[in-house]
Amino acid sequence: MTSERAGNSSAEEPERTTGISPEPSSDLRSQEAAREKLGQPPLDEDSLLLVFGSEEAHRAVEWCQSNCPRSDIFESRLEDGTKLKEEGNVMVKGGQWEDATGRYLAALYQVDFSIGQQWQLTNEHQHLLDTIKLSILNNLCLAYLHREDAERARKAADLALKSVTTIDRMAKETDGLQPVPRETLGKIYYRRAKAHYSLRDYDKAYADAKDAHEFCPSDTAVKRLMSEAQRLLKKEEEKSTRMWRSSAKKMFPESQQSVTTEGTVEKPSSDNA
């Protein structure tokens, strides 16, 4: 089957696992236009790679053009994406986090189909595509975390969860297809929680860690992160409360005294009774 195959078994258009914002910025459009003038092929505006920045995206594309050109055949692209992901996994085991990131981005490029191409896929093929995409994004998130790039790690996890939504919807609509395993969901939420924690967004870190704990209740790392995020969240709330009270006292220094004075009622003496 090629990427142009028709015959979607669902009347509803498959959910696209695009970037955080559906519309690219004007700066991004300008960068892509400049690359086109230099003879470098621009990426589609809905490309998943652009979520991680134009430079990261084009390094992956250029590497693929030299080492693993993208095929027009659907199955070949899935095979190449899986192969590149496995190469990234080997690099992870060797602690080569930067190289692994590049390989995962190259793998993502292979399985990055346009909205129009995905609209023509059957539920079975959409499910398979997003399953591979989910695995790549989950590992990419891990690589970015080890490189202390929390913002890109968060974006990878966000995209992974979009694929989760698509996979689960395909499984619900089509007999024989399976939803995302609970353990995989636990990993995604845990990694996004770590990204939020590094970004000091403790509210979201706690929420994601709590979700991760629901899927992996016996995981000690998840429990530890949830507890620490909750502790820091409470600390921030207490600090905000103290600051608010301090500001209120400065803004209304006489308010409490006025209320006390105005609220006092003179008790009548027994002589007037």
Which short descriptors sum up this protein?
273 residues, mainly alpha, Serine Threonine Protein Phosphatase 5, Tetratricopeptide repeat, 2 domains, 0% strand, disordered N terminus, disordered C terminus
CATH topology label of the largest domain: Serine Threonine Protein Phosphatase 5, Tetratricopeptide repeat
How many structural units, i.e. domains?
2
Identify the CATH homologous superfamily of the largest domain. Answer: Tetratricopeptide repeat domain
Order of helices and strands: HHHHHHHHHHH
**Number of E strands:** 0
**CATH class assignment of the largest domain:** Mainly Alpha
Oligomer: single chain
Major sheet: none
Q: What CATH architecture of the largest domain do you see? A: Alpha Horseshoe
Overall average residue pLDDT: 83
Intertermini distance: 102 Å
Question: What is the CA-based Rg, rounded?
Answer: 26 Å
Instruction: Describe the global form.
Output: elongated
Structural class category? mainly alpha
Query: Low-confidence spans: pLDDT under 50, at least 5 residues?
Result: 1-24, 264-273
Walk me through this protein's architecture.
- The protein is mostly helical and 273 residues long.
- The chain folds into 2 domains: 134 residues, Serine Threonine Protein Phosphatase 5, Tetratricopeptide repeat; 71 residues, Alpha Horseshoe (Serine Threonine Protein Phosphatase 5, Tetratricopeptide repeat), CATH 1.25.40.
- Helices cover 67% and strands 0% of the residues.
- It contains 11 helices and no strands.
- 36% of the residues are buried.
- The N terminus and C terminus are likely disordered.
